[in-house]
From TrEMBL:
<dbReference type="Pfam" id="PF14698">
    <property type="entry name" value="ASL_C2"/>
</dbReference>
<keyword id="KW-0028">Amino-acid biosynthesis</keyword>
<dbReference type="InterPro" id="IPR020557">
    <property type="entry name" value="Fumarate_lyase_CS"/>
</dbReference>
<dbReference type="GO" id="GO:0042450">
    <property type="term" value="P:L-arginine biosynthetic process via ornithine"/>
</dbReference>
<dbReference type="InterPro" id="IPR000362">
    <property type="entry name" value="Fumarate_lyase_fam"/>
</dbReference>
<dbReference type="InterPro" id="IPR024083">
    <property type="entry name" value="Fumarase/histidase_N"/>
</dbReference>
<keyword id="KW-0963">Cytoplasm</keyword>
<dbReference type="GO" id="GO:0005829">
    <property type="term" value="C:cytosol"/>
</dbReference>
<protein>
    <recommendedName>
        <fullName>Argininosuccinate lyase</fullName>
        <ecNumber>4.3.2.1</ecNumber>
    </recommendedName>
</protein>
<feature type="domain" description="Argininosuccinate lyase C-terminal">
    <location>
        <begin position="363"/>
        <end position="429"/>
    </location>
</feature>
<keyword id="KW-0055">Arginine biosynthesis</keyword>
<dbReference type="InterPro" id="IPR029419">
    <property type="entry name" value="Arg_succ_lyase_C"/>
</dbReference>
<dbReference type="InterPro" id="IPR008948">
    <property type="entry name" value="L-Aspartase-like"/>
</dbReference>
<dbReference type="InterPro" id="IPR009049">
    <property type="entry name" value="Argininosuccinate_lyase"/>
</dbReference>
<feature type="domain" description="Fumarate lyase N-terminal">
    <location>
        <begin position="7"/>
        <end position="301"/>
    </location>
</feature>
<dbReference type="Pfam" id="PF00206">
    <property type="entry name" value="Lyase_1"/>
</dbReference>
<dbReference type="InterPro" id="IPR022761">
    <property type="entry name" value="Fumarate_lyase_N"/>
</dbReference>
């Protein structure tokens, strides 16, 4: 098959080269963006007087016919035509005749593909932002419904201090809110039009790039033709935000995997989101959560892959940049799936208070015993030592903190009074954290109200 550049060459392209260099097997993901761009470019050419009204109409009708076939899965993609752009252009010429060959006037595949990718990323970023919002809503509703459940917070995976479960879910809501802000910020830099930059030096036809930007819905125009065709920073930044969001998803998934184990048994996962074992009948495996955790590695790998491609290529466009698409498409698919999966899990969780509450007592309360002494005037470092000595004593005696007597406490400090026993209830200790952002019920209630309003749930 004749190539669009065949005039320069004396030999036909080797079949290996066709197979090795083709990208249509994956870049056809950009087909609808490519046709949308084509139509805008044709209208721009008409405005510049390069195409007549009749030619413009004929080309656009041909493109819309191709678009229909693509949407219906009827379009035949040809590997020998290399990429999505040439497949569409060749089919257009076949359908409308030589006038279809005017489509590529004043344009290079270098600015064409960069435009497709930005159009694709604008759409996908908006979808990811919406998925993040749905996840945040689920977290807020779960927080509201679990405000009276007490469990230990963990540091170093050791029981630390009692918190209300709602406080935990609001923490992840904050993480995903920051992720949303990063996607919104990234979107601003995606929303710039490179089309009209040509191969590298600009275009020598009188096209109006501002008009094209208006047709395609871009807020800005890339101001330098070299940068416009060589830049993939916007993809690298997007992949970084995907990776960071994936990290938050992975940490949430890890917690829920641990909490659903029989050793913790804090939560029960919905059966419909788990799988079983082919050999062990008792198993209920948290496969969705495990895959969310595992797929975060793909998000990291995709980011590193693109950064490695970009680091050594000379300015401006090089064929290496073809390698930007598969990591991009994979990260989009992976992150969207993970966001949907974790939301479904959150919405289906049930909690086991009888397992959580006891673990929020005993030595988890001892920090407040030290604080009790500090409020009595003992320097905190000394109060800390006394509280630690109480822990050592109780471990030796095989007793819980709740079982200690006032007489035993006074053997460590005469400042202990009856009121110290108010600290031996996890909910009382949690509710002492009344500073803004703390785990006290009154603070959490206020922040849930704020979150409900921010998420449009109230």
């Amino acid at each position: 098959m004749e190539k669009p550049w065949s005039g320069r060459f004396s030999e036909e392209t080797d079949e290996f080269v066709e197979e090795f260099t083709e990208s249509v097997s994956f870049d056809r993901e950009l087909a609808l963006e490519d046709i949308r761009q084509d139509i805008a470019h044709v209208r721009t050419l008409q405005k510049a007087g390069i195409l007549s009204e009749e030619e413009t109409k004929k080309i656009i009708e041909g493109l819309k016919g191709i678009e229909k076939d693509i949407r219906e899965g009827k379009f035949e993609w040809k590997r020998e035509l290399e990429d999505v752009h040439m497949n569409i252009e060749a089919e257009l010429i076949k359908r409308v005749g030589d006038v279809g060959g005017k489509l590529h006037t004043g344009r290079s595949r270098n600015d064409q593909v960069a435009t497709d990718e930005r159009l694709f990323l604008k759409k996908e970023t908006e979808e990811i932002i919406n998925l993040l919002k749905e996840l945040r809503k689920a977290l807020v509703i779960t927080a509201r419904n679990s405000i009276d459940l007490i469990l230990p917070a963990y540091t170093h995976l050791q029981r630390a201090q009692p918190i209300r479960l709602a406080h935990y879910f609001l923490a992840f809501r904050e993480m995903f809110l920051k992720d949303t802000e990063r996607f919104l910020d990234c979107y601003r830099r995606i929303d710039e039009l490179p089309l009209g930059s040509g191969a590298v030096a600009g275009v020598d036809f009188p096209i109006d790039r501002h008009y094209t930007a208006e047709l395609l819905g871009f807020n800005k125009i890339v101001r330098n033709s070299i940068y416009a065709t060589a830049d993939r920073d916007f993809i690298a930044e997007f992949l970084f935000v995907c990776a960071l969001t994936g990290m938050h998803l992975s940490r949430l998934a890890e917690d829920l995997i641990i909490w659903s184990s029989e050793e913790f048994s804090y939560v029960d996962l919905p059966d419909k989101l788990c799988t079983g074992s082919s050999i062990m009948p008792q198993k209920k495996n948290p496969d969705v959560l495990e895959l969310i955790r595992g797929k975060t590695g793909r998000l990291y790998g995709n980011l590193l892959s693109l950064l490695t491609v970009l680091k050594g290529i000379p300015t401006a466009y090089n064929r290496d940049l073809q390698e930007d698409k598969e990591p991009l498409f994979d990260s989009v698919k992976t992150l969207k799936g993970s966001l949907i999966g974790i939301r479904k899990v959150i919405e289906g969780l049930s909690f086991k208070e009888h397992k959580m509450y006891p673990n929020a007592g005993n030595f988890v309360l001892i920090t407040d015993v030290a604080n009790y002494l500090a409020l009595k005037g003992i320097p905190f470092r000394k109060a800390h030592h006394i509280a630690g000595s109480i822990v050592a004593y109780l471990i030796e005696k095989g007793k819980r903190l709740e079982d200690i007597t006032l007489e035993e406490l006074r053997s460590f400090s005469e400042l202990f009074e009856e009121d110290v026993f108010n600290l031996f209830k996890p909910e009382n200790v949690a509710d002492r954290r009344k500073t803004y952002g703390g785990t006290a019920r009154e603070q959490i209630t206020k922040l849930i109200e704020v979150a409900l309003r921010e998420e449009g749930l109230k």
